[in-house]
Amino acid sequence: MKIEHIALWTSDLEKMKDFYVTYFKATANDLYENKTKGFSSYFLSFETGARLELMKRTDVSEEVTGEKLGWAHIAVATESKTAVDELTEKLRAAGFEVVGEARTTGDGYYESVVLDPEGNRIEITC
Questions:
Q1: Does 106 map to a domain?
Q2: 13 CB contacts (<8 Å, ≥6 apart)?
Q3: What residues form DSSP beta bridges with 4?
Q4: Closest listed residue to residue 57, CA positions, set 37, 75, 74, 72
Q5: How crowded is residue 76: how many other Cβ atoms within 10 Å of its Cβ?
Q6: What is the pTM of this model?
Q7: Does residue 76 register a pLDDT over 90?
Q8: 103 and 126 within one domain
Q9: Rounded to an integer, what distance in angstroms lies between the CA atom of residue 21 and that of residue 49?
Q10: If you write DSSP's letter for every residue of 66-91 in order, what string do you get?
């Protein structure tokens, strides 16, 4: 088995799509809309075949900041420590919050942690 995709509720579908396309080289499909349900989504595909579904629905609006039970983060692998550092600085310069500076973790990853436009954690690793 393999994970087919991960889905994420969002309040700003276009902003989130643009973020992942711009900084993580995702490719977005055409917008899907079901006006009866007030639902719209994009599937974002990454070079490795992984996919992220960004979803918005008119009745889903609760925002929670900080850590909470449930999914903690997604991790995106780069090819080198230099790539981790460069992407981290590119995101910082664009105004995104870096909540974990680049470092080697106890389990051997070199990583930084940034927040996407809605506060979801992304580990940038190699």
A1: yes
A2: 31, 40, 41, 42, 54, 55, 56
A3: none
A4: 37
A5: 22
A6: 0.90
A7: yes
A8: yes
A9: 14
A10: S--SS---EEEE-SSHHHHHHHHHHH
Q: Are 25 and 53 in contact (CB under 8 A)?
A: no
Domain of 31: which CATH number? 3.10.180.10
pLDDT band at 91 (very low <50, low <70, confident <90, very high): very high
Last residue of a domain, which of 37, 59, 81?
A: 59
CB atoms within 10 A of CB 114: 22
3-state secondary structure of 92: helix
Pair (8, 52) in one structural domain = yes
The count of structural domains within the chain is 2
Asked if residue 67 belongs to a domain, the reply is no
Domain of 48 in residue numbering reads as 1-59
One-character DSSP codes across 3-14: ---EEEE-S-HH
pLDDT digits (tens, 9 = 90+) for 24-51: 999 999 999 999 999 999 999 999 999 9
Residue 90's φ and ψ, nearest 5 degrees, are: -65, -45
CB-based burial of residue 3 (10 Å sphere; 0-12 exposed, 13-18 middle, 19+ buried)? exposed
